[in-house]
Specification:
9-stranded mixed sheet, homotrimer, UDP-N-acetylmuramoyl-L-alanine:D-glutamate ligase, globular
Chain lengths: 271, 271, 271
């Protein structure tokens, strides 16, 4: 990766050419926003959660999103079924452990999914990631009470333990496979004022995973792209309602060349 | 139908006077967008899906939407219960077979609903309509891989077989009862960039069915109206996030006279 | 309460400092809008509905929203479980009886929740409130067919009977604990064109309940604040799609001083 901006731009170009199908088993709150975000990026979203359907849907997808934001037992069963199908077919899975650390249902389910499935990327906020590391994270509902830095070391260890990429979003996103660590310096603070912006970032990673099998790069590029859309929207919008609309507009508007120029990625190597 | 624009305008006027209640059993992704679309049109939406409630709700509605976009077995049972109540009370049903052709759950459920219920209108994209005709449609999630033209003949045959109006939306919508064929030349390509725009078009048809018992006309008028709203929004908005907001604004803004003038309907007769 | 505007402003200031967690068991249609509204106000929303999670989530919340807009039996069980936990921990509950009066499932569930739980505030439209009083209200889906005035007397009696604050929203919101009656003269008619604006008003009350244990005041202040946001949005937006976006913007933009100045509250005392 000599020029990450160029590679990220190429990913976006490929995404818009291939229009991969992204199968989302995600929470009720963000379904609409995630779907519109994926379309604006160039992907084709589908939401399906029934146990008697998810295996078939997952098997035709380019990537699978598993998001535990509004959980119940039938959905957990569907997540496991879809995940196993995805694994069998080498379809990358991204897990979004929304609210892990807030209730034991969420913490235990996230841990179980991470253990029973082969997960390409886990994206969460700092408290959620800490809770997966076995720390008492005390996630405030679905909101982090920790900084990205608080969870940086845990992310590296968790990445090695699970053989997954860990992505922590927050003030400066961190993405690691346990070896390389990326810091993403794109983004805007209004993103924290839009419900599901983390979930849509997860969806963006899914779209990039569908076109780049270097998962740690794909995750970093996707978060850079998503953060850049936040920056673009913030130029025109200073309040969260219109900012959210502008975020979708910007995901659509940003082209491969814009991403190449705008990506702000810092690459570090562990040990 | 000497002046379809005038008749369509009259339908819209009647809709805004009568404010029919539209009972939606629809998917999680689009519930909010469908509800806001229906309100902007002049109708009163209600969403209700519990088996121990849908019969009562359907019986007081002006039309019933059955949309299979996020399906599960309890919802299928509710759809059948609500549908039978609607049939008993001569309340028109519109079926939206979202994703039929992508999984057997969706294809089989759509076929079962079309068989067991007396459906006024089925609205889908070309791949979904082909899948109902028994063709291997290979719907890509919920997105069509066929053109409207690919499914035109199947639509006519399906309309005759099911005694339902078939509406295929796409570049130029097609509406047929097996005898008359309408082509709707309203619409804008950004509509394809908004999740649930097809579902909201279905909701528009429901609203028109509630005030016009000539189902083939009602469906064509509704799609013309909905497409015109897309055109109006596209004048002010060139990106999907703001386009979606503008679509709701335009549904609200378009008056009967605007629809009379703006409707672009082509009428053809089969043999 | 010598200067209600000042007290309301102080509540908003406290809300933004404390950022209370609001646990919502609410309907699918409005989840996204309620969450974004709560964030814009300054609160932290979480949605959780599973029976094996709601007690844990409710116990860490500042207030609990129970909204019956898309009901089913498992959700009713979760509402009761969460509500009992909230009561045990002195966490205020607000009940939104969406569609009570339209079906017996909704009417009976709303009555059961009001009876079995200790509810701080019930917020509904006039028909919904009448249905809780045992009147044949004939709610048209989720829309009122009565004026606020029609239900004013029933609200006072219901407040005394249930020992709850009753808030009726409509042209001029009414809030009463059976003794004091507030009329709120903020608001704008476009609010009625946005699905879930009532539900978001309920969420606003929840946020104020989390920082003010004078429930009747908290409810009146919250409705004044929410109505003021509608007025602000209506200055810039004349159509429902953009009005909704502007409502979120305005909830965010309005500061404590703006609320102090803009609140239009009329205080009356019964007998």
């Amino acid at each position: 990766m000599i020029d990450p901006g160029k590679d990220a731009g190429e990913n976006l170009r490929k995404l818009r050419e291939q229009k991969p199908l992204i199968h989302n088993i995600t929470n009720y709150v963000v379904m609409n926003f995630s779907a519109n975000s994926l379309i604006a990026m160039g992907a084709l979203p589908v939401m399906a959660h029934a146990e008697n359907e998810v295996e078939e849907m997952a098997s035709i997808a380019g990537a699978l999103v598993i998001n535990i934001g509004t959980l119940s037992d039938p959905w957990i069963r569907a997540m496991l079924l879809a995940g196993k199908t995805a694994n069998k077919n080498n379809i990358p899975i991204i897990l979004d452990p929304v609210g892990a650390g807030a209730t034991s249902l969420r913490t235990n389910t996230a841990k179980r999914l991470a253990k029973e499935l082969d997960i390409a990327v886990i994206r969460g906020n700092a408290s959620e990631v800490l809770s997966l590391s076995g720390e008492e994270s005390g996630t405030k509902g679905v909101d982090s009470i920790h900084s990205v830095e608080d969870a940086a070391q845990a992310a590296v260890e968790l990445a090695l333990e699970l053989d997954s990429v860990i992505a922590i979003t927050g003030e400066n996103d961190l993405v690691t496979n346990g070896d390389t660590v990326f810091r993403v310096h794109n983004g805007h603070k209004l993103m924290g004022m839009v419900t599901g912006s983390g979930c849509a970032a997860t969806a963006a990673i899914a779209a990039f995973l569908a076109v780049n099998d270097n998962f740690v790069e794909a995750a970093a590029f996707a978060l850079g792209y998503f953060g850049l859309a936040g920056q673009w929207s913030a130029i025109r919008n200073t309040r969260p309602g219109s900012f959210k609309v502008g975020l979708i507009d910007s995901l659509y508007e940003i082209g491969p060349d814009d991403l190449q120029t705008g990506l702000k990625l810092e690459v570090m190597h562990e040990t």
